[in-house]
Write a structure and sequence with these properties.
This protein has 85 residues and is an alpha+beta fold. It has helices spanning 42-57, 66-76; strands spanning 2-7, 14-20, 25-31, 37-39.
Length: 85
């Protein structure tokens, strides 16, 4: 039987891990505020985790507030994005 485990703080987006212990398999899902579920391959999460550890090792800090908009606009050419605490 599959087990449903949440890794979140009650704000969207929510990351879920669905585990099937019998098959020893798991699935990572991103739930949007619209109730949509998006499958995220674990290897992509691991790759991002490795990059985060590398940046933190070089004393980088996560941007927040208006810094997010500035960085995203400069790097990707996107205007204001949704910021969730």
């Amino acid at each position: 039987m599959a087990a449903f485990q949440d890794i979140h703080d009650e704000s969207y987006p929510i990351l879920h891990i669905v585990v099937d212990h019998r098959r020893k398999k798991y699935v990572v899902l991103l739930e949007t505020s619209d109730g949509e579920f998006i499958y995220i391959p674990a290897h992509k999460i691991k790759k991002i985790h490795d990059k985060l550890k590398e940046l933190e090792g070089k004393a980088y800090k996560e941007a927040n507030g208006d810094q997010v908009d500035i960085i995203v606009e400069e790097a990707l050419g996107l205007e204001r994005i949704e910021y969730i605490e």
